[in-house]
Write a structure and sequence with these properties.
Length: 258
């Protein structure tokens, strides 16, 4: 983990309130693993005080990218940064998706901004030559971000692109129609989606890792501010920032987290 001051090289509005931020960060780009995140200081002022966490979306040489939705005060401020500005960043943080274990096929599932966790994982899966199928869900066609991914099956709530309905139903339809040998699911998205994909994985007895989001302060396991309740594990609680954000789906208590 490093703290760096990274120069912004590009900030692109991809439509709606979604932005892709590209910055120079060789120190993090050289070590980051799929599923890890960074913690960005919002401004030089004391407000907002807390850093904001974002998944590492992609790396392009020495440059890193994040994909973010401007939902509140902090992301609104970041969306107004300019090329050449410097960002105070800590990273890479958290654990990563695991490509070891008893599986032969992979299913990547992204919902909303959860798609930001997929490109790095997709690259690693390709390097390892593991069969992969990708599913991305969004509210509508305009909110679908499919850059860096190939052969994606899409679902939209309003049916404006791909399957009409939620992405987990699309995954279930796919499993019912295809005989997939020993799949493993990797999922990132809003809490209801993660709860649904976890249920689906249980139903079909499929390995599944989910990336959990939670409000964070320190991002490095000091403040104890990001607990997630676990099931069937030695410790009743884990920290999303330090022990996660990736967890085996059947170890999360979705009554509280979803
Ligand atoms: C490990 C991790 C990885 C993350 N990766 C990404 C990512 O790649 N891209 C991304 O866009 N976000 C990501 N997030 C969420 C991101 O951190 C928050 O969107 C951000 O902190 C919001 O900051 P803010 O100051 O703009 O909003 P705040 O002022 O903190 O909140 C403003 C309002 O927005 C709501 N809000 C906050 N977060 C979200 C959200 N995610 N979705 C909808 N409403 C929200 C709040 O409830 C509140 O009502 C990630 C979070 C974690 C924990
Ligand atoms: S955010 Fe401080 S312990 Fe996780």
């Amino acid at each position: 983990m490093k703290q760096i001051f990274a120069k912004i090289v590009n900030l692109a509005n991809l439509g709606n309130s979604i932005y892709r931020l590209t910055f120079e960060a060789p120190e993090i780009a050289n070590t980051v693993a799929p599923g890890q995140f960074i913690n960005i200081r919002i401004s030089d002022d004391s407000y907002p005080l807390l850093r904001r966490p974002f998944s590492v979306y992609n790396k392009v040489g020495d440059k890193l990218q994040i994909l973010f939705n401007a939902v509140g005060r902090g992301t609104a401020i970041i969306s107004k940064r300019k090329e050449g500005d410097s960002l105070d960043i800590i990273g890479p943080l958290g654990n990563s998706f695991s490509l070891t274990g008893d599986f032969e096929n992979t299913l990547l599932v992204g919902g909303g901004m959860g798609v930001a966790s997929l490109p790095l994982l997709y690259s690693e899966i390709q390097v390892n030559k593991i069969p992969v199928t990708i599913f991305v869900g969004a509210r509508n066609k305009e909110s679908l971000i499919l850059d860096y991914l190939q052969n994606v099956s899409c679902a939209t709530d309003d049916g404006s692109d791909g399957y009409k309905g939620n992405v987990v139903s699309l995954v279930e339809q796919y499993l019912n129609k295809n005989d997939i040998i020993k799949p493993k699911i990797f999922a990132c998205g809003p809490p209801p989606m993660l709860r649904a994909i976890s249920k689906l994985a249980d139903k079909y007895n499929i390995l599944c890792e989910v990336s959990i989001e939670s409000a964070m302060a320190c991002g490095i396991g000091i403040c104890q501010g990001c607990p997630v309740e676990r099931i069937g594990t030695t410790n009743k609680y884990s920290l999303v920032c330090k022990d996660g954000p990736i967890f085996e789906s059947n170890t999360i208590n979705y009554v509280l987290h979803g």
